[in-house]
Design goal:
This protein is an alpha/beta fold and about 425 residues long. The chain has 15 helices and 7 strands. It is found in: Cell membrane.
Amino acid sequence: MADASPQARAVTLLGRPKLWLMPTVLTGLLALLLALLYMGGIVNPQGALHHLPIALVNGDTGKPPAGQKQNAGTQIAAAITSDTSNDKAEWRTLSLAEAKDELDSGKVYGALVIPADFTASITALTTADATTRPTMTVLTNPGKGSLGSSLASKITTTAAQQASQTIGKQLTAAAGTQANSTTKLLLADPVNVVTQVGHPIGSHSGLGLSAFYYTLLLVLAGFMGGNVISNAVDTSLGYADTEIGPLHTRRPTVPISRTQTLLLNMVMTAGITVVSVSLIMLATITILGMDATHIPLLWIYSYCAALAVGLGVQAINAAFGGVGQLVSMFVFIVLGLPSSGATVPLQAVPGFYRFLSHFEPMRQLSDGVRAILYFEARGDAGLTRSWIMIAIGASLALLFGFAMTRYYDRKGHKRLTPQPA
């Protein structure tokens, strides 16, 4: 009997349940995990928000009003910091200079400032010719990302407005019936809340998101570059076929150990990453005009960051073989994005993602990029920790990769039997 036509053979194969089983299970599982992991990190930032660092500056130097032990600024600061019913903010009582330093180093997402003349301004409201409202200032920090800065601004503004209403009730009660309707209206909400940028960033910084997308480019460069190099080396050594449309080639298999193959992959990764990182900077800074300073430092950091990812990809591929690309995708991309803290503050994501952030590469790299781009490359803005984590990550990749390949070589686990072209 003649063989069935290719079309008929395909139809016959489609009727086999085993052909469908594994692709269906893996694809469905990946879709489920991706949906849960990505959306789980951003779907409810307000509900997950806990202990967002915000500075509280009480600069009020006025004397306490008659019959009170503390001036108005001290009373407001005490009321804000002692409120245990709301744990969304971690209020840090600082001087104005300390608050500005923490804004400049990205340690706080915003600040609430009570001025020196606050009590005097409130006392003046009780006079007959009062026209000027006392002011509290909300300082934002766009360098911490648009969402994080917005959350901090909302918290500080709400706290200032609640303080204004409390003061208003006290002043209205003290004024009694002697106050006219205009004065009563002024006393009901006496404090003017002003919002200002506490640590400005450039207009070409993506509203504080350029650091995240730049980090993503570095991770993708390391991830995709590592996989492309690994596949290209396998093809060149005859361990994989080359197919381009109808064209198919197979080179003679080169006898080489797994350890030597990994060494070749890693050396090539170190060389090619120079090109990819340089082109990323050319595209983002030179062509697109992204705001960036400390250019030499940024290039060195970008190279080391992308190289650490590339070495990690090579180590994982060497250890896990064909599924290595899938494993490295989860390590560097799937779990890294929602736990990076670059778009949604880590204080506003579920605890699982905060746990991942302690070691997931993207969080470590994004902190360093943010420090260089927005916070004058300060070590205490996250750059020092990022350098340490890059060194640890690269070292672990080298140790893990070569330990696994040497183990396979000693056990005689050859990749395949050498074949001619």
